[in-house]
Structure formats: C-alpha cells, structure tokens
Amino acid sequence: MSFSETGRIDLPEYKARSRESFFTFVSVAVFSIAVFEEIRTLFIVPILLLLFLLIGFQFKWKSLFYLNIPLFVLSFINIFPYAKNLWPGTLIVALIFYFLFFTKIRKTGLLRWWTKGEVSKQVLGFSVLFILSASIALFFWFYLLNPDISDIKENFPKGDVPLLIAAGIGFAILNAAAEEFLFRGILFESLLSAKFSLFWALVFQAFSFGILHLHGFPRGWVGVGLAGIYGLMTGLIRILSKGIYYPVLVHIFADITIAIIVLFFTK
Q1: Of 47, 119, 175, 263, which residue is 20 to 30 A from 77 by alpha carbon distance?
Q2: Predicted TM-score of the model (pTM)
C-alpha cells in the first residue's frame, strides 16, 4: 500500500531527502530513549532534539523541523520531576506548539493524516476486536502482575462516583486523542515521508509508543510489549481507515478500561 492510499490524496505529498530521512529516524529514536531516568536527568534528549529542530530549520527540511517541535517541547517539559504527574497535559502542550503551524504544515503535505477517514466492515471488525482484546489484556496484566500504580491513582481526583466517572471519561478522551495525534499522526507521517516503507513506519512508531510506557500504564517491560502491540493495532486501524478518527475512538475504550482499573480496582 502506497503512502497516497493512507491519507488525503487531495493534499501534496512530502518526500524527505536522504539525510533528512536519517535525522528523522534518529529524532524518533532519541525521543524514545528519554524514558530512561539515567538519560533524562542528563538533559541530553531535549538538547539533541533542539539541535535536530535547528538543523531542519537551517536546511529547510520541513518534516524534520515540524516533527521535532512537539518532541522537543515534550522532552524539555519532562526534565522537570513533577511533569510526569501532569500527563497527558504535557503532551497536549507539546501538540499545541505543533498546531500553531497548522496551515504551514498542511501545505507541506505532512497533515494528510488529519482527516476522519473511512469506515468499512473491515475497520469496524478490527476496531471491535482490538477494543475487546486490549481491555482483556489490561485486566489480565493488572491481576496477574499486581503492579504498583499508586502514583497514577494519585493523579486522579477523589470524590463521589459521578465525579470519578467524569474524570475517567475526560482522561480517556484527552489521552487517547493526544497520543494518537503524536504517534499514529505526526510520527507515522514523518516516517512515511522519510521513505520508510508502510511496514517499517508502522513498526517503528509502535516501538516508540511501547517503550514510552515503561513507567506508564501498562508499565514495566511486559507493559512495553503490550503497548507496542497496541500501537501496531491502532496503526493498522489508521492505515485501513485512512484517517485518525477511528484510531482515537479505539484508543478511548482502552483508556476507559485503564481509568476503571485505576479508580475502582486499585487500593
């Protein structure tokens, strides 16, 4: 399946040069390793991403430049210890900086993912399958591994059931949209423009999504594997639907499951 079949064919298609493609790959790799505490405390990730951003600006490599806007902002915010308690707010802030350039990015052809997409029996079938399998996997992970997620629970409000339900739904919508915009939208599009095949773009964005869950939910290396598989699932939905709406919708149900576990099954 060619790139033109995965997004808006009425928009121009951006093709990165060879050196830009290399720096795009390195940018995503550097961003991904920021999950390790030893690396994050050295401040090397935001420094490198800022360097890549400036390289993109200097050489007019638009894909590299626009990709590194949210990556740099997010990695910079995350060097502060309390930032982890503000997720997905930190990611939303990073995306706001990216969307400040919406019109210019659209003209370059790097916003072909910014469309609702198409629904089909195949999309609906896979969506239902992935929603059910992800929810079951999350409950199995929680009950079998009994992870300590007290730090996540502390970030949710305490109160009556209606308040908890509202908080859970709000979290699910915001987190799902923000993560899908970054990984199945911006990262995926940048990798495709960097001449990665559809298969490797799918795999690499899923790898990045997975490893960034090392301290998230699900967490640990098992969580990394589960999140990586889920990144493949929602990436496939993005390809089949040719848009971002259905990956977000599928992701919302997974995050609702997470909210239910955190709010009602965690002591």
Answers
A1: 263
A2: 0.93
